[in-house]
Specification:
about 210 residues
């Protein structure tokens, strides 16, 4: 993010997007919120152009009843997340995918006990670094529900992260950590096999670097 470059970003990139999206950006009161949203959209569209050689501006973006965005032709699965000063975006042309990034900050773990299973909470409490351990679980759980698509209608306590995998309604989700910055935790969740996550990692890395 860059306050100094904000107006320049708006001038260069915003006119490329739909009128509805331009109005959405203009409604933000804080330049930080506007820029985070715009950078996510830029990453997504650039990724589609560079990797898949499609023109994303020809596609119509819609939202499910759970407010998950998708393209009407359903050729690409994607997800965007941001925290602090970093925005990340992932793309997949086969399987549902989710990503979550969180800046590691001081929190009261007791405030989130109802979001964790008993085993997860024990692992956090007895870890060498409780805060880092908490954000490892938190980003994994957020990435999973974003891949699953129903958002927070799926209570985080109803599924458990174990060895970078979990299940929701008999569907398996695998996770992989993406190391971007030591001050952040970031995980990708893919509905599929762990081999497919590794197969796609090269493309994922392209989008977030």
């Amino acid at each position: 993010m860059s306050e100094e470059n904000h107006e320049n970003l708006l001038k260069i990139y915003l006119p490329k997007f739909s009128a509805d999206y331009q109005e959405k950006i203009k409604r933000y009161r804080r330049w930080q919120d506007a820029q985070l949203s715009l950078l996510g959209r830029i990453l997504l569209f650039n990724g589609i152009e560079e990797i898949y050689k499609h023109n994303p501006h020809d596609k119509v973006m819609k939202h499910t009843k759970y407010n998950k965005p998708y393209f009407d032709d359903d050729l690409f699965k994607f997800n965007i997340s941001h925290s602090g000063e970093i925005v990340v975006c992932v793309l997949n042309d086969e399987h549902e995918i989710g990503i979550d990034i969180e800046i590691i900050s001081e929190i009261e773990i007791d405030d989130f006990k109802f979001q964790m299973t008993e085993n997860e909470l024990d692992n956090i409490i007895f870890s060498n670094n409780k805060i880092t351990s908490f954000f490892e679980y938190w980003t994994q759980k957020e990435a999973v529900i974003k891949a699953q698509g129903h958002g927070l209608t799926i209570p985080l306590k109803t599924f458990e992260i174990f060895n970078s995998t979990t299940r929701i309604n008999d569907e398996k989700y695998n996770l992989k950590e993406i190391k971007i910055n030591e001050k952040y935790k970031c995980y990708i969740s893919l509905k599929g096999t762990i081999g497919e996550i590794y197969l796609k990692e090269k493309k994922i890395q392209f989008l977030i670097t």
